[in-house]
Amino acid sequence: MFWRYEITGVDTITLHFGEQIDVALVDSIHKAAAVLRETLGERLLDAVPSYTTLLLRYDLRQDDLASLVADVRPALDTLSPEGGESEVEPDVVEVPVFYDVRVGPDLERIARRADLSIDDVVKRHTANTYHVFAIGFAPGFAYLGQVVDELATPRLSTPRQKVPVGTLGIADTQTAIYPITSPGGWNLIGRTPLTLFDPERDRPGLLEAGQQVRFRAIDEAEYIELGGRLDDLPWERETTTASTTGERS
Amino acid sequence: MTARQQGLIVRKPGFLSLLQDAGRERVMHLGLATGGAMDRHAWAWGNQLLGNRYGAPALEITFGGSEFTCTLDTQIAVTGAAVTCTVNGETQPLWATISVSRGDEIALSAPKSGLRAYLAVRGGFLVEPGLGGSCATFTREKTGGLHHDGKPLQTDDILPCPETSDYVPNRKVPAQWIPEYTAAATLDVVLGAQVDRFPSRALDDFFSHAYELSAQSDRMGARLNGPALAVKGERLISEGISLGSIQVPADGQPIILLNDRQTIGGYPKLGAVTPRSLDTLAQCVPGSSLQFRPISLHEAQKQERTFLRFFYL
User: Fold this and answer.
1) Bridge partners (DSSP) listed for residue A14
2) A4-78: which CATH architecture?
3) N vs C: which end of chain A shows fewer Cβ within 10 Å?
4) Closest alpha carbon within chain A to B260
């Protein structure tokens, strides 16, 4: 496995596994993170995978740069070279989504842009298996790639002030679900009733880097049955009260 | 928590008062910030005076203005920003143990210098650790803190204190370890590998000019105003962000990423301010003048190790 490291902080190095975003790297980086967590144990305070990199934060009471790298190198050497057969089945998480203009206010625009019906947008979005490239931006926010070219849509030029928890969006070739209510500039196409992030759970984030995701379209009845909500849609209020003042936070 | 739990009742929370400890470990890959006390020097001394373990939860009180009623006999210590601390109206020493009794009123004024005061209690506040083994408060994430919902201290909150831990002898921090918080500070920077992204002129600008700490700064990032730094190329592919990273967005005004920073990001980074210098930065008020000097990784690690070993024993 090819890699190099960069010094990125007093107690961190960043391992680089490639120079460009590539699905094949996701698996390599995931394996590297796993083997380093196992080998280094308590010496490793954090291992943060991203698209082409793995950030390592180490414990200065136990290591300096040289002693850390001396053990990182043989650990990564044990991994099969690139292109090697993966023995473990990828972990595929199924996420039910209610694709509807009420919860996905950008669905129509994406359909028009791609010259497709809304149903076809849903079919194309649910047909793919997505890789979790990285977790970041907010707790449990998973960057998933890649959507088919027809659905790729640039971010909104002005982000919305409030995107409700569970909303599914597209930005360029990536797709993601907002795990907490937050501001956001992604194009919104639906919503899942699943809880993506729960600090009380053993594994607070439903998704982690290295996993795969498939979306399953559900109807309104199933969405409601699974705990989905239709009473907290800020864009509806934004359009009906657009002329009033003083309501925005 | 039982109704009989003794502790400090919050009468006035102040502008921003947060329960903080040493921060989270092993959760950045979940998108969770590390958090923790911003000025570890003052926070760790507060705990040290009271015989608490490193990492015990204490209060981080920004801009002062907090008041508490004590419901038990215990000891406290107030360190960090130069507030006036009174107990029942009588001024108490800072950086020293203070004995308090049931019914006492504790008040912290706005600071004369510095920004963040720390209030520690004997045995540490009794708050269950949450994510990453920490009770650090994250307002943005709505996690951590007294009620695990990320809220800063609120009026009528009860901060539970242990009733049983043994009295410690009265102590004070030796004068040499009590910093003067002045309006100007020089911060050490370890240059990172991405320094190649910056033309040498940008490095000259950064290290030879003073920058002003912007009022737009918070626990997530310290924004600087000063000479704009030229950056070669555009955004990078997003990657994990280290504590203290100096990222330079397109407008050329550097941002130092702090404890509550986002976990990944794609702006080029010049290097990282050392953790010991971040302790200094934590006490700089908006408008302070900041200068930067390069330091070797070896020297920065030595300083940090000395700090950690001192307080971990």
Assistant:
1) A6, A55
2) 2-Layer Sandwich (3.30)
3) C
4) A138
